């Protein structure tokens, strides 16, 4: 079976310091894949290799082979702007642009030339906000600032912004850690609804969340991928002692 993403023997360094050690992982289109592990184990660093977000960190160096639909994303021919539209990202802290709700969503499709006119752009905006579960709450106030929304709404706006450029993969880096339990539950429902349409990879500190939203779980420790498999197996029948120790709360 072909995978959406193949990462093979990936190492990441910040200067002299190695943050990721020889990680290989395959991500499937139809799954939500969760990355878990104690603070500093490299979950975010590895996630950011998947759309070359580490390119923005001067000291970061990535080695290894990462493919999206078989295409080497670190090849010199890869257009990074295009890559980041195909592999979108949602961050820990909601970060809407200080612009209107409409503009937050319309910006990407406009710069990527995805709409041939205003009507088409309006359709993309409505569709993206609908998919992100936000349309009914904002349809009468599209010209209000995105930053005036609640934290949970801002995060759904950021998801709508990622969706608007028609991505294949959505990376989420602790998307609920700044949200209250109700807003968190809405994002988890949304992840459930988006599953299948986009391959989703989520970093989470919250093991219950990983168990609720994902089909596959990868457990990282000290920059290594200790164990990767079906979420159910990882949480009920892990193969590695280090995984057992983590999920039973012995450290981290
Ligand atoms: N920009 C950076 N420059 C130097 N070192 C960094 C940088 N970003 C991360 N690191 C280091 O790389 C290691 C992995 O960090 P990373 O943020 O990927 O871990 P994490 O598992 O996502 O942690 P957390 O759950 O706390 O966010 C840590 O030792 C961290 O200090």
TrEMBL record:
Q: What is its EC number?
A: 3.6.3.27
The membrane topology term of the UniProt record is:
Peripheral membrane protein
Q: Determine if Cell inner membrane is one of this entry's keywords.
A: no
Q: What gene name does this entry carry?
A: pstB
**What GO cellular component is one of the record's annotations?**
plasma membrane
* A GO BP annotation: phosphate ion transmembrane transport
Domain ABC transporter intervals: 5-247
**Listed name of the protein:** Phosphate import ATP-binding protein PstB
Where does this polypeptide localize?
Answer: Cell inner membrane
Kindly state which keywords UniProt assigns to this record, in alphabetical order. ATP-binding, Cell membrane, Hydrolase, Membrane, Nucleotide-binding, Phosphate transport, Translocase, Transport
User: Taxonomically, which superkingdom?
Assistant: Bacteria
Q: What does this protein do?
A: Part of the ABC transporter complex PstSACB involved in phosphate import. Responsible for energy coupling to the transport system.
Q: Name one GO molecular function term.
A: phosphate transmembrane transporter activity
- Per its UniProt record, what SMART domains does this chain match? AAA
